[in-house]
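re: that chain from earlier
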Amino acid sequence: MKIFNIIKKVILVLAFVFAGVACVLGGITLETADVAFGTALMSYVIVAFVGFFLFCSKNQTARRIGLGLTTGFMVVLFYLSLAGIETSTGAIMGLVSVILYVIYFLVALIGLLAIGGEGDNDPETDPKIKKILGWKKLQEEGIISSEEFEEKRQEILCLKKNNIKK
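^ sequence. v structure.
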């Protein structure tokens, strides 16, 4: 699963590097078509890079907001790239960026189908395991008993149904 995560991150970074190059290429080459493409894209740059950094965060809510922002930017980039593909090198870079963004989601889908919904049970990423390890440490230090630890473990793993008091 880690190899899919690494590949996905590399592809996502490459997509936004190409998008950044597409934005500034007009200032580098000074061709009229590239300058026009870069100018049309400049109003969306802040949205794109804020979305990119949110999309790469570990917070689930921020990732969802970032996904929406980056996808919206890629739709605009795709439209502008198709409009200027005949004359602008920046539009070609923009189209490559959109293609890499689509490949990112294809790799994510392949990873999901190949690995399935199973997690890697890494204590650094799974909050349930972190909580259980914290309670285990308290048990090892003698602060809580093994019965209390087992009760908390079952509660965290949702194995124990809460008794409703009447």
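The chain has a mean pLDDT of 85.
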